[in-house]
């Protein structure tokens, strides 16, 4: 089998909460970076399957609108919002299912034009209540580092207020990938936004084949279950510190926000 464009990134996740109570954790993880046009080839791997159970698997319904045929779904989403030229190649950085289970707090789509230039990024944020919101933002072609800013649109954590902003700093996937998010809010008696949370993933490239998949299975056993368990454990610690619970909007399950080529912002339920 020819070497795939799809690959693994092995690295570290770090969360650092600044206010109103400090909290920090670091753990080792790996992600898959999937070229969406390679789903048929990936399905031929011994330990990796598409839409069926395996040691590792990728299910299209875990992403996008929750339906199968994810490549078509994402290309339609981009085209309908004025980014048709960014549909030539789409790479998705996310956690795979491990023994049938996964949870992705953030899945990141890198969308390239026919010159292999990064033109748009989709930040697909999911919460533990089954809701998903996608932030579609334009990228500068050939930039070594991409920076984005947007207002929070979806309830994520019971301890995180809605009136906050995300600052994304991205190193697109090559030999290394980095996804850094800084969440801020206007603090009382302050003329500047103050940081609430800093979350990062940094990873090093690794080929995706049967040998590497078996290696990460034993090096990161039940990783996606560990991610979910870690989320609830950290929430328990914050609750014990008596942080105020935030009200949750239960009216939306899937939505998208984006800025068109003229700079006008939009929001739509999917």
From TrEMBL:
Region entry Disordered, spans: 251-270
Ranges of biased composition (kind: Polar residues): 253-262
PANTHER family on file: OS07G0153300 PROTEIN (PTHR33973)
Ranges in coiled-coil conformation: none
UniProt protein name: DUF1365 domain-containing protein
InterPro entries, A to Z: DUF1365 (IPR010775)
A UniProt-annotated Pfam family: DUF1365
Natural source organism: Neptunomonas japonica JAMM 1380
Domain of life: Bacteria
């Amino acid at each position: 089998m020819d070497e795939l464009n799809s690959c693994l990134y092995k690295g570290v996740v770090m969360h650092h909460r600044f206010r109103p109570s400090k909290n920090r954790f670091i753990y080792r993880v790996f992600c898959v970076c999937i070229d969406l046009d390679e789903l048929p080839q990936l399905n031929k791997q011994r330990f990796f399957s598409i839409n069926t159970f395996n040691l590792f698997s990728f299910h299209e319904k875990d992403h996008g609108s929750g339906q199968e045929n994810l490549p078509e779904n994402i290309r339609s989403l981009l085209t309908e919002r004025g980014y048709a030229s960014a549909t030539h190649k789409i790479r998705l950085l996310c956690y795979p299912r491990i023994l049938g289970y996964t949870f992705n707090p953030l899945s990141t789509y890198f969308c390239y034009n026919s010159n292999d230039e990064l033109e748009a990024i989709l930040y697909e944020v999911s919460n533990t209540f089954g809701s998903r919101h996608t932030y579609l933002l334009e990228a500068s072609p050939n930039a070594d580092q991409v920076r984005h800013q947007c207002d929070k649109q979806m309830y994520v954590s019971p301890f995180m207020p809605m009136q906050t902003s995300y600052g994304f700093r991205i190193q697109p996937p090559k030999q290394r990938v980095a996804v850094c998010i800084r969440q801020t809010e206007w603090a009382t008696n302050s003329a500047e936004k103050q940081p609430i949370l800093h979350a990062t993933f940094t990873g090093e490239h690794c080929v995706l084949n049967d040998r590497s998949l078996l290696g990460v299975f034993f090096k990161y056993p039940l990783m996606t279950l560990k991610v979910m368990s870690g989320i609830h454990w950290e929430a328990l610690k914050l609750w014990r510190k008596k942080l105020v619970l935030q009200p949750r909007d239960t009216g939306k399950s899937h939505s998208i926000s984006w800025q068109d080529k003229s700079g006008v912002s939009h929001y739509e339920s999917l």
